[in-house]
Design a protein that fits this description.
The complex is a heterodimer. By secondary structure, chain A is mainly beta. Chain A has strands at residues 4-7, 10-13, 18-25, 31-37, 44-50, 53-57, 64-70, 73-79, 87-94, 104-105, 109-113. The radius of gyration of chain A is 13 Å and the shape is globular. In chain B, 0% of the residues lie in helices and 53% in strands. The chains are: A mainly beta, B mainly beta. Chains A and B meet through strand 10 of A and strand 5, strand 9 and strand 10 of B.
């Protein structure tokens, strides 16, 4: 039990589909993150939310749309994805958005784009 | 582009052997974190090092932060199959979010 829960664990979708990834944290943290993890590459930070406000957006294509309705929930809405978007998408949370704060990760959603 | 290089990329050894993996950069970090990611799971924080020259021990794992705070190493003594996983380092550099390495994939064979 990591305290950060991601659903679904696996997702296969076509390029024209619309789907959403969900993340929920039970740790009382104020910051939440979306990362993309591809094999043999460093974790790519996509979005950072602090107290439900987006504080970082690392030039992510608009086909990825985040939503943070409250400090416990984070969504990543997907539409018109490309094959190169296939990866493991990790959600994380931390007490606040300071870089030295340890991050607590969910187990990820394995996304495959057909 | 800020880089944090981890070496080796892949390491497969027998149970009971010792090993060291490295995390190197040209940047100076105010702190550096080590995570382990097991197959099918997310990364889990092992340790944070903050002071140049600092050594931290976690059971059979010894973490060292370089004197100049540009590099770090992880030494595992008497490796066990439970040590298998992807070891990631992440550095806190003043102008960026955490900078992540690509990881060392470690397999310990029984």
């Amino acid at each position: 039990e990591t305290g950060v829960t991601q659903t679904p664990r696996h997702l296969v979708m076509g390029m024209t589909n619309k789907k959403s990834l969900k993340c929920e944290q039970h740790l009382g943290h104020n910051a939440m993150y979306w990362y993309k993890q591809s094999a043999k590459k460093p974790l790519e930070l996509m979005f950072v939310y602090s107290l439900e406000e987006r504080v970082e957006n690392n030039s992510v294509p608009s086909r990825f749309s985040p939503e943070c309705p409250n400090s416990s929930h984070l969504f990543l809405h997907l539409h018109t994805l490309q094959p190169e978007d296939s990866a493991l998408y990790l959600c994380a949370s931390s007490q606040d958005s300071d870089r030295n704060q340890p991050q607590h990760f969910g187990d990820g959603t394995r996304l495959s784009i057909l | 582009t800020q880089l944090l290089e981890q070496s080796p990329q892949f390491l497969s050894i027998q149970e009971g052997e010792n090993l060291t993996v490295y995390c190197n950069s040209s940047s100076v970090f105010s702190s550096l974190q080590w995570y382990r990611q097991e197959p099918g799971e997310g990364p889990v924080l092992l340790v944070t090092v903050v002071t140049g020259g600092e050594v931290k021990k976690l059971n059979r794992l010894t973490f060292q932060f370089g004197d100049a705070r540009k590099d770090s190493s992880l030494h595992i003594t008497a490796a066990q199959p439970g040590d298998t996983g992807l070891y990631l380092c992440a550095g806190d550099e003043s102008n960026y979010q955490l900078i992540w390495g690509a990881g060392t994939k470690l397999i310990i064979k029984p």
